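Repro:
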Amino acid sequence: PFFPSFQGNHLHGNLKTPELLAHLQDLLAQPWWPPGPSDGAWGRMKLLGAVLLGAVLLSSPAQLSKPEEQPQVCYFDVLSGRDSRFCRGELQVIYPDVGDVSCIYMPKCHQYRWRIIRDWMRPRVRFPQADEGLPRVAGADAHPGTTWSKKYVLVLADPDTPSREKPWNQYWRHWLVADIPSPGSPLGDRDAVEGQGAELRSGDIKGRVLSDYIRPTPTPRSGYHRYQFRLYRQPANATIALTREERISFCKDKLCGPPHPKLHPEGFPGGTVRWPLMKFVKKYRMGSPVAATQFLTKHYED
């Protein structure tokens, strides 16, 4: 009757109750009280001593080990509505540990939001359908008569700067790569033995980098930001380039505010600019993306 409250798997940290029970039972079995008419009183004292000893054992730092970190359940909420409709073409964006983040909210568990902002480098971007069934002539949304090369252009931009409610600095460019060869490109044919030209299917993006990868930079209390990946088919004979104005930031303090000290300790990162993406796409007659996806995340302290 004395022991039921100790039954279970754990008590305080990693102390196993069977070990405690065995220890207390051994103590109680010892004849350390004098026999006689007052056995009942001594029995009550014995019981009180056992309780006090159990309390000491449970509270003693020497008997306790560091609590085990309980497995944390991670829920990946899928985008819905208009946000989900942006995702098309089975484009995959793969970061370490978390895997493919296409069309999801970045969860806060396992420090994923912190790691994508402060730790992880550029993701793998896979397009398994690269060069499969894509026409040589553009659709109605591109310039009439446009012919396609067997190369691609990848764009990563944040349309929600400084926030989705007030996107004054749309779009904020985070990555731009042109001349990405497809498996059917001349580069792929020439170097087929070495396996080059198939990087777009494997996710190891190779091409001419116009803007280096910049990690997501949602500021505190600005809500969720959309980080949108667009993959365009590159028109034939087009030399994709940024103008001098596009290569530098023309974001004014009155629009952007000062750089956030935790995210930009040395000012705004180079290459990250407020950028007229749609004008850029129209200039090079790229039409609609052949594939696109996005994930949503916000500052890790929110």
